[in-house]
Amino acid sequence: MLSIGTFNNLTILRDSPHGLFLEATTAEGAQDILLPKKYVTPKMKIGEAVSVFIYTDSEDRLVATTETPLAEVNQFAALTVVGTTSFGAFLDWGLEKDLLLPKKEQLYPVDEGDTVVVRIALDQRTQRLIAVSKLQPFFRKDTSELQEQQATLALVYDTTDLGYKVVLNNQYDSLLFYSNSATELERGDSLTVYVKNIREDGKIDVTAFPAGRNATEQAKLSVLQKLQEAGGHLSLHDKSTAQEVQEQLGMSKKVFKKAVGGLYKERKIQLEGINGIRLTE
Questions:
Q1: In Å, how far are 35, 50, 132 from 154, measured between CA atoms?
Q2: Does 42 map to a domain?
Q3: Cβ neighbours of residue 109 under 8 Å, at least 6 residues apart?
Q4: pLDDT band at residue 219 using 50, 70 and 90 as cut-offs
Q5: What pLDDT digit, counting tens, does each position of 94-110 carry?
Q6: What is the pTM of this model?
Q7: Structural domain of residue 36, as residue ranges?
Q8: CATH number at residue 14
Q9: How far apart are CA 223 and CA 170, in angstroms?
């Protein structure tokens, strides 16, 4: 049975001026699907199978391509908005035809140039692939396969007053507290995280720090790196605002003060009052 939104191995039936027709079986029965001529290679022979991605063209006809999209159906991805209309936004997902993010499926309004994290979904009524940024219905609730300290990939999809909301392992909704991240993140950023706490209600907290390295130790490394990049001096100090610290170092002021205190005790930096901090020569 043909699977829309993924790669299928289909047999080449015949040639035509427009490309190759491939044999497929759909819910409606047998159907020939066109692989446009621009994707045809000399190695493709009638009677042999070819791996193609299936989606619909601008006239809602099933069509094949050898191009690889940035995400397939039932996957999450960070995509760029390339255009907006009264009924939705169009996203670049690596194929010739842009992907529609319908207005009713938008978690928040988007503009051209924005990065938005979406789930690729198949509209069962129209059989079209669409993007959805209202992600909650797609998250898996059963966390029995997760273990604390497990390393996995996270994709930042939103922010809260407490931290970053992330898609964990392409399956789970999770929260990365600001204090558990050494750098400032944006929507669409991917990073490796570690499962810190799995609550009884199924909610998951993660951290960017592996076991044995707490936020202060990681922050100390980050401060030293920033000092080296800045030529040995930073204008941040005890009276700097939380916003200034966040903008320059991507960490909370509380973590910054602990890091600076630790580095000073280790004689790795000098404190220069309101002039900031400096690497020890």
A1: 35, 33, 18
A2: yes
A3: none
A4: confident
A5: 999 999 999 999 999 99
A6: 0.74
A7: 7-65
A8: 2.40.50.140
A9: 32
